[in-house]
Amino acid sequence: MIATGRIPPGPEVLFSDCTLGSEFAGRRVDTGERVMGMNMGRGFATSTNASINSMTPIPEHWSMAEAVTTLSTYSTLYYALIKKAQIKKGESILIHSAAGGVGQSAINMCLHYGCDIYVTVGTEEKKQFLVKEYNIPVNRIFNSRDILFKNHIIEATNGRGVDIVLNSLSGDKLDASYECVANCGRFVELGRFDMIQNKKLGMFDFVRDIQFLSVVLDVKLIDDMNFCQEFYDWMHKNCTNGCVKPINYKVFNASEAEKAFRFMTTGKHIGKVVIKMRDEEMDRQPLK
């Protein structure tokens, strides 16, 4: 959305003249160790100058391409669902745009937590993908292109709504999502567009003791220097139990970067889009 100009870059613009490419995977120059990490831009490069705190070793059973699919997705969800929403086992959740990178990662986390999962997608292809890949029942997959999902959620939950809405939709779809939250539930806002537009939100539903939680990860990364390592510790503890695992991705070579961006604007991609600078070595041990 930054590349297309729909939203302006965040505070990371203070640290870099190029805010695109915040995730990377490669080898450390000094040790040859495979590492993955997040930086304030300049990630679309053959090399990047990153601090030790911003990176972590890549789990042995992940490739570099797999590793980069987990960074912004699971770090966002760790902050959103674990730290802020404090998700509990068995809670119900509505995950919007569930075939995307954050959506698939949220499904993995919520399956691990034994949650009661409802999702939305924008195409029939994405619907069938979720049925096949994650065994989401067809009657729990709704359309993200209109607001009828609200009626379906209210009906499916016998009028109660869900404990958590993980929202990335805007406009009237945000309003409809807001009305899907159960009493004492949490609305977790991941989207930037309505924030930038200063969208107004009625306060009446707050009498139902619900929480509105905004998640702006780049601000958290700047304000809390310990967040990255805290997230990496959690990731390593959960990368073998199904909670955190790589998601579907499509790879483009560096020479195809423009094609990759144009592909993303179609809304047809499922999972993440990865730009590969070079082929990864077969040997995953540190290179001397």
Automatic annotation (TrEMBL):
Residues 5-275 form the Enoyl reductase (ER) domain. It comes from Oppiella nova. CDD domains: enoyl_red (cd05195). Keywords: Phosphopantetheine, Phosphoprotein, Transferase. GO terms for molecular function: oxidoreductase activity; transferase activity. This is Enoyl reductase (ER) domain-containing protein. SUPFAM superfamilies: GroES-like, NAD(P)-binding Rossmann-fold domains. It comes from the Eukaryota.
